[in-house]
Specification:
Length: 160
């Protein structure tokens, strides 16, 4: 456990072997003997978020928003979220019982993040055993990033 002596927080640690939590879609591309250096201000054009677990409801994964900040610390505003943001699975609209649900991936960038309103969140089914539940963001050009803030899906006040 990181070489630390026992302390009051040990009861919160999970002794089970790590599973998909914290795994990466890129993990298979590197051997354990290779080192990976994370740049201070990473650059890129496409961001890929992999939702590896759920919080609360094991059948659904959702977020209320994503904020991206450029290398100077300014918010990156999506010009066309319908075109620039995609998800797999897209939303709960992939399920037969849903057809026109508003909780689609473009809502992640509508700048309404502290909300429980279905008109401003993304929700998708979470399929156990599936490796990836992804959100892909096209920034339209390569840029440096200083910070990314992810807002969790909050359907109840208890989890807000």
């Amino acid at each position: 456990r990181g070489g630390f002596d026992d302390d009051a927080f040990d009861g919160f640690l999970d002794d089970r072997p790590s599973t998909v939590m914290g795994s990466s879609l890129m993990a298979g591309r590197f051997s354990p003997s290779e080192s990976l250096v994370i740049p201070t201000l990473p650059k890129g054009r496409t961001l890929l978020f992999n939702c590896v677990s759920t919080w609360g409801d094991e059948n659904f994964v959702g977020l209320a928003g994503i904020e991206i900040f450029d290398g100077r610390g300014f918010p990156v505003v999506m010009k066309d979220p319908l075109r620039q943001v995609s998800a797999d699975p897209h939303s709960i609209n992939v399920l037969p019982e849903y057809e026109h649900d508003p909780r689609t991936p473009d809502k992640l960038f509508d700048q309404v993040n502290l909300t429980r309103d279905d008109l401003h969140v993304w929700l998708a089914p979470f399929f156990a055993g599936r490796q990836a539940h992804t959100i892909t963001v096209d920034l339209e050009r390569t840029m440096s990033l200083s910070m990314i803030r992810v807002w969790n899906y909050n359907k109840s006040r208890l989890h807000s």
